[in-house]
């Protein structure tokens, strides 16, 4: 349907142009002593249109040529990121299949590409642990881009431009868990209060942080809420059991 529309439009334009040229008997006289040039108006219009098109094409070509180095750099950067993502995907698949040596190799290949994600270090470390290569695992986990804080900050940068008012809740949840694991209970409480407190796992961790910070009354109240929440999964059953034990 679209092809038919454009065909009819071009046909109508061609007919209109042919009738205009046939009925137009005007001419243009260009005088530059001692020279004198007489052109039909149709030829002058054709020269003007062709000249404009040529000038436009030349300007576009010049602009694209000037931007070529920047375009090439951007293309190379995208190619590197694509290779890093491909290597990361291969590492994850190999890890799930139990091919730990291959997973470690692909993770190292991804890490060698500038701008790759720190998750590759975690994947490689997990594979190294499975083959009892603890020195390699420790070296990978000690990388700055593999630290949980670094990954959390990268997540916050990705969602910063979103319009969702709750966009930072996952970031605060992760930072709260990091602080809790480091026994920085006050910082953990501050982070968890900014997280999604409708999530019972988040509330459970908030209660743990409160208990560690000495705010036992509020911690017990939240433990009771978590323990009485009616949701049955194997994972939450363990959380409920621990929450009820701490609430008593």
Plain-language structure description:
- The chain has 248 residues and is mainly alpha-helical.
- Helix 3 runs antiparallel to helix 4 and helix 6 packs antiparallel against helix 7.
- The model has no long low-confidence stretch (mean pLDDT 79).
- The longest helix is centred in the N-terminal third of the chain and has 56 residues.
- 21% of the residues are buried.
- Helix content is 73%, strand content 5%.
- A hairpin with a 2-residue loop joins strand 1 and strand 2.
- Among the domains are: 66 residues; 100 residues, Serine Threonine Protein Phosphatase 5, Tetratricopeptide repeat (Alpha Horseshoe).
- It contains 11 helices and 2 strands, in the order H-E-E-H-H-H-H-H-H-H-H-H-H.
Using brief descriptors, characterize the structure shown:
two-stranded antiparallel sheet, 73% helix, Serine Threonine Protein Phosphatase 5, Tetratricopeptide repeat, 248 residues, mainly alpha
Q: What proportion of the residues is helical, as a percent range? A: over 70%
What is the CATH topology assignment of the domain at 148-247? Serine Threonine Protein Phosphatase 5, Tetratricopeptide repeat
Proportion in β-strands: under 5%
Structural class: mainly alpha
| Largest sheet entry | 2 strands, antiparallel
Order of helices and strands: HEEHHHHHHHHHH
CATH class of the domain at 148-247: Mainly Alpha
The total beta strand count reads 2
Rounded to an integer in angstroms, the radius of gyration calculated over CA atoms is 34 Å
**Could you name the CATH homologous superfamily of the domain at 148-247?**
Tetratricopeptide repeat domain
